[in-house]
Amino acid sequence: MQLNRSATFLVVVALLLAIGLLVGLDAARRRSGAEARFAANRALARWFEVTDLCLFTEARYTRHPSLADRHSPFQDYPLAMEHFPSGSLLLPPAHLAAANHPGVTPSPERDPR
Amino acid sequence: MSEGVYRHLRVIRYVAGSLRRRWRKNVVLVGVYGLVIFALASVVFLTQSLTHESVAALSAAPEIMVQWLSAGRHGLTPVQDVGALTRIAGVRAVVPRYWAYHTDEATGETLLLRVPEGRQLREDEATAGAEVLHRRGIAVGGSLHLRGYAGESLVLTISGVAEASTPLESAAAIHVSEGAFRALTGMPEGQATDLVLRVRNRRELSTIATKIGEGQPAARPIIRDELVRTYTSVFNWRSGVIIATLLVPVLAFILFAWDKAAGLSPDERREIGILKAIGWETSDVILLKSYEAFAVSVAAFLLGGALAVTSLALPQPPVVLPALLGWSTLYPPFRPGVAVGAYQVATLFFLVVFPYLVATVVPAWRAATTDPDLVMRA
Questions:
Q1: Residues B156-171: tens digit of each pLDDT
Q2: Which residues in chain A are contacts of B108 at CB distance < 8 A?
Q3: Distance, in angstroms, between A51 CA and closest chain B CA?
Q4: How would DSSP label each residue in B280-298?
């Protein structure tokens, strides 16, 4: 049977939709299976009183951003530039950013960041 | 003048006319193309400026520093351990350094407190970078209020402007006496932040570093040249990440250029056909299209490059600066000096101009190699 172009297009779209549907079903199946693992992780986090998800393993301020301070990235030498690769992917949390310093109104000439 | 040169001159004259005839299209093209180049150039130039800044700051740093680690993190250095390091062959002198960071109560910015070497300051005296003073509206003779380690307020009289070798130093450095430093940081007597080693021969640096590691397992030697290498590669990595995200607009532009050129407008096709019919060679048509593309590229390149350099000098920081700085945004805002080298300009030129030339010349060559009669009729 010779398919014309519009029929070929429809077949391809239908095929892609079917694949998308299968991916969704597979994800749902995996998720229900993962519930036990999540429960174990939750128990572990409660037991160790874990503070953060460990998204990066290199610099300690990006590994535990909630525990980071304003000084730890610059300890190599005076006015060191922060230099871990993850530092540009995970910027300082809002509570450390200067403008959000508790109880402080930023001075007017500060650059908005 | 030889015939070859004449041919080029005639083609160039024709290109000028052809660009003028379609000036609206070309202005839009140069504008869009210029914006793409501006985005890329901002990243490349800013990276170079920041690398230059870091390396400039490090060039004044000592060749080798020693820090103490305790409980797995950077700790204070006991000054009495200096003697052991002085006995290492090749070490001329060991000098304790006192420096620490301080969070500015008013702005939440990270400032640097440092006890200057070779200058004795009185207990109530301080000097600071020009930008530190300017941003706080303090003149020489005025007073600087800082919060001490125990929470008490410390008032220091500014006796002068501290020399700064980089804009960051000017924006963040405060020099104080050792007494004031201890009051501000809570550092106990007999301890220093780190040690600086003066060595006789630069080539012995790695040997000395090894000996320090063997003799003092808690010590961490830091060699300046290694820091310089790290910083250069880090900024390159960061700019690479940003350029990767910018690739989407760049690819979109290349597609746009390809599409515009591949579907040569009927007018352009007819023009090529007529040129062929009146005796132009295929090579002449390709030359014509190359010159045209080159003129557009160079105009866009100059526009984008000029915009990027100008944006580095504007009071408002460039949009990509925080991404390149990372956590260094915790410092007071500072503007790196503009440092653009021939290497960066050349890289950028080949990165953006070459794909455009290819994207426009190839379709023109296709049109030029077909029969003029067919092209004109199409």
A1: 999 999 988 888 889 9
A2: 70, 96-101, 104, 106
A3: 19
A4: --HHHHHHHHHHHHHHHHH
Among residues 59-78 of chain A, which lie with CB inside 8 Å of chain B?
A: 61, 70-71, 73-78
Helices (H), chain B: 3-21, 23-59, 82-86, 130-136, 167-172, 178-185, 205-215, 224-262, 266-277, 282-313, 321-325, 342-369, 372-377
Q: What pLDDT digit, counting tens, does each position of B340-355 carry?
A: 888 888 988 888 888 7
Low-confidence ranges of chain A (pLDDT < 70): 1-2, 98-113
Please tell me the distance from the alpha carbon of residue B120 to that of residue B130, in angstroms, as a whole number.
Answer: 20
Which pLDDT score is estimated for A99? 52
A71:B101 CB<8 A: yes
The pLDDT tens digits of the residues spanning B204-254 come to 888 998 998 888 888 889 888 888 888 888 888 888 888 888 888 777 877
The four Cα atoms B243, B244, B247, B249 give a dihedral, to 10 degrees, of: -80
